[in-house]
Amino acid sequence: FDNTVSVTNASVVVTIDSDDYSKISIGDTVYFGLETDDYMVDSISGTTVRLTIPYAGSTNATQTLVVRRDF
Q1: What is the pLDDT of residue 71?
Q2: Nearest to residue 52, comparing CAs of 64, 65, 39, 67?
């Protein structure tokens, strides 16, 4: 799942740019763009995803969200 999202520095809230949130699950590990920090999804409500820890990168309204799942 690669999608455009809006992220804000020091916030746990991520806003997905579409309603394609069904491909993200609570507990998924996510990355933003080419950043190496990983985050875990705490909750999902509509197009709002909450992380377990605040986003440490720069505020960006067109960031790419990448989901990694270990099977």
Answers
A1: 59
A2: 39
